[in-house]
Amino acid sequence: MYDEVTPHLSIGHELSATELDEIRGLLPIRATASEITLTWWDEGAAENLETFPLPD
Questions:
Q1: Vertex 13, ends 36 and 5: CA angle to 5°?
Q2: CB distance 19 to 11 below 8 Å
Q3: Distance from C-alpha of 23 to C-alpha of 50, rounded to nearest angstrom
């Protein structure tokens, strides 16, 4: 049932660039996001309900 779940990690935007670099060095982070999406998943269908931009 959960074979297609993509694990993710949310890191607070209050961290400095140096702190973010340190965390990225310790964890297997491959990509970062500029937005969050609220998605409704159903059998055979998915719909983005809302998109929230993340602060720079």
A1: 35
A2: no
A3: 28
Residue for token pair 């993710």: 8
Please give the mean pLDDT across all residues of the chain.
77
| Beta-strand pair 35-42/45-53 | antiparallel
Q: Which pLDDT tens digit goes with each residue over 10-36?
A: 666 677 888 888 887 887 777 677 888
Measured distance CA(46)–CA(19) in Å, rounded: 35
| Residue whose entry in the numeric block shows the structure tokens 């993340």 | 54
When pLDDT is cut at 50, 70 and 90, the band that residue 7 belongs to is low
DSSP state of 1: -
Beta bridge partner(s), residue 52: 36
Q: Output the pLDDT for position 2.
A: 52
